[in-house]
Amino acid sequence: MPPNAASSAQAPDMPKTVSLEDQFPSHEWGLDKIVADLRASREQLHRTRHPLGIRELPSREAIVKIVNGLRSALFPTHYGAADLTAESVDYYVGHTLESTLRLLSEQIRRALRFLPENHDLSDAELGMHAFALAREFGAQLPAIRALLVSDIQAAFAGDPAAQHITEILLCYPGIWAMTHHRLAHALHKLGVPLLARFINEIAHSATGIDIHPGATIGPSFFIDHGTGVVIGETAVIGQHVRVYQAVTLGAKSFPAGNDGVLVKGNARHPVVEDEVVIYAGATILGRVTIGRGSVIGGNVWLTHSVPPGSNVSQGKIREGGAGDAPDDSRGA
């Protein structure tokens, strides 16, 4: 007899473990009715599917990978491989761009299917069109990088807390948001609005800065702090403009057509001319113009144009020689 056989034989029976599946079998969930009700909601009562039944959608995971690849190609020493040398960097950039633009072409193809003018195109025709757009987008990357460098330099010049360019590239949410916007705006202009909006919303989720990809923003744009900044689709912003947290460049009204649907694409957001500063919490609504060199103070609510060189604070406007904003309007 084995040494422990007697003690084992006398040991009480161990309690039997009952699995959750045994305790609550599938029929107890009432799944048949839930599935049937969801089908009724999906197919009859509350349809959300595209009228043509398009099921092949752009992939958020792929778009995140595309933006990361483009960022690495634009700034390889900051976002690329850690061991890059002067001899290997061009190879790295070329290899990264090839794989990234191939992935972008596929996502463009998926997004183009949602445009009415493409409904009758074959998959082959749509694929060729997507490839051409991705190639054209790639050709714009040097110019996009130049704009981003101007934004980085504006941040360094405009923020006394900034220690060096690397800190701005790696840490500043405004630069993160503008990287996404510069890329998204190029795609928007090329006629891929769904993909552009996807890129915008990824940055919005990460930074709290919401810039519609249709907004036109000139070079040397600096968003300080950034949280809560909203810039609408038809906003036009000049060069050397600085805005602080919680600034809104929005629309004042939303006209509807005879069918009750909101009219799309009207110019309804502000025009901000060169060298304007807009301090924290300011809200500017409608197709108004903020003249060159103006300063809009903190928490101002503005629904009319102001001439160049204006200094606007709560309750008053001073024209000419904008200078600095009032002390209680300064950003941190």
Automatic annotation (TrEMBL):
<feature type="compositionally biased region" description="Basic and acidic residues">
    <location>
        <begin position="316"/>
        <end position="332"/>
    </location>
</feature>
<comment type="similarity">
    <text>Belongs to the transferase hexapeptide repeat family.</text>
</comment>
<dbReference type="GO" id="GO:0008652">
    <property type="term" value="P:amino acid biosynthetic process"/>
</dbReference>
<dbReference type="InterPro" id="IPR011004">
    <property type="entry name" value="Trimer_LpxA-like_sf"/>
</dbReference>
<dbReference type="GO" id="GO:0009001">
    <property type="term" value="F:serine O-acetyltransferase activity"/>
</dbReference>
<dbReference type="InterPro" id="IPR045304">
    <property type="entry name" value="LbH_SAT"/>
</dbReference>
<dbReference type="InterPro" id="IPR042122">
    <property type="entry name" value="Ser_AcTrfase_N_sf"/>
</dbReference>
<dbReference type="InterPro" id="IPR001451">
    <property type="entry name" value="Hexapep"/>
</dbReference>
<keyword id="KW-0012">Acyltransferase</keyword>
<dbReference type="Pfam" id="PF00132">
    <property type="entry name" value="Hexapep"/>
</dbReference>
<dbReference type="InterPro" id="IPR053376">
    <property type="entry name" value="Serine_acetyltransferase"/>
</dbReference>
<feature type="region of interest" description="Disordered">
    <location>
        <begin position="307"/>
        <end position="332"/>
    </location>
</feature>
<protein>
    <recommendedName>
        <fullName>serine O-acetyltransferase</fullName>
        <ecNumber>2.3.1.30</ecNumber>
    </recommendedName>
</protein>
<keyword id="KW-0808">Transferase</keyword>
<keyword id="KW-0028">Amino-acid biosynthesis</keyword>
